[in-house]
Design goal:
Elements (H helix, E strand, L loop, with lengths): L2 H13 L13 E5 L4 H12 L4 E6 L2 H13 L8 E6 L5 H12 L6 E4 L10 E2 L2 E2 H28 L3 E6 H4 L10 H14 L7 E7 L15 H10 L3 H11 L10 E3 L2 E2 L4 H4 L1 H21 L8
Parallel strand pairs: 1-2, 1-4, 2-3, 4-7, 7-8, 8-9
Antiparallel strand pairs: 5-6, 9-10
Amino acid sequence: MVHSDLLQYLKGQILETPPLLAVDLEGQTIVITGANSGLGFEAAKHIYKMNVCYLILACRSLERGETARKAIMASSRLDSPGKVDVWQLDMSDYSSVLAFGDCIKGLTTLDAFIANAGIDMAEFVKVGGHESTLTVNVISTLLIAMLVIPKLRESSKVQKKASHLVFTGSVVHIYAKHKALSEPKTGQIFKTLVNRSEPGQSSVILNFVHPGWCKTELFKTNDGGMGRRVALRLMGRTSEEGGRPLVHRAVADEKSHGKYLAECRVKQESSWARSDEGHQVQEQLWPELVDILEGIQPSVINLE
């Protein structure tokens, strides 16, 4: 990371607070993964208050998801409250991801899918044939994206307006030091997905959102030691503030398609991501991921 990248990050983290959006989501169906705690939970509360028609909380634990559902519905008294359901989704289990994708097919429409579920592990744990962070934050995240894109496209065609696929930084752009896949490389995967999907079209608006450094349960298994804990206390945003950018991108306009966003606005990607090396990594990683995804579910890659 060069000085300009660090300066942009610190300026946004310390001096800017993501604004709270106020829009009417009447008639919309929105899915949020990792919705029982942290950013996903706070984003779900915001969305529920915005008159959403159908909100689906995708959670690994149905019990914790149900607790979150009750808390979300109790957070705001609405004259005509939308429907809120809990669906099971374990991102460390490919069969669970595939089953969830089948459930998505049964929806009448899908206006926005917010891929928020992610982990940050301090120790090496192998899951699904790969290191757990790689499995959850990259492979399963891209797998679920491939499974929901057809429904998002279908909904866009029926409703004659763009639908939204949102990736959060905590999912694909947070783990900078792991040997398996570094932060810049995961960002390149998102760029590849954008570049290879719907050329010349924007029926599905894809956004990559960095919510900032937030005080969430993401770090409960890897708090980084005393220095990181002190810095997080001094600089960290609340989960509520971190959930705001997720809501913004779920209703973003076409100009934001494929962009990197922080503090609810478009910002420049890192110098590495814009470099020749970054572009080379993008091209190298995509075929490898395609092979992995096709091994899990043949013909799942369909971006034409």
